[in-house]
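Reference record
================
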Amino acid sequence: MKSIAALHDVVTPWSDGLEPSDAELDAIEWELPLILAEVDLIDAEIATLDQVPSELDERRIRRARDRVLAARTSLTNQAAASMPGGAA
């Protein structure tokens, strides 16, 4: 059997453009509190997939949802504050 890879160009050529730009890294860093809060929520939900959630599990999920909501609110407020003219 012939390998077709040798007959075609690489689909995604390696270039210096594959690294995230400074602006993209800044955006990720800015959203990191929300990302971490969402990971905590997913962890809490995964822990209850194969069992009936106990009262402690429900409390953990509720607190994780509250942290996600707080992080989203904070990011929204920061974005609104950074708009020119104070427009929201």
Q: What stands out?
A: The helical segments are 22-47, 55-81. The longest helix spans residues 55-81. The chain has a mean pLDDT of 85.
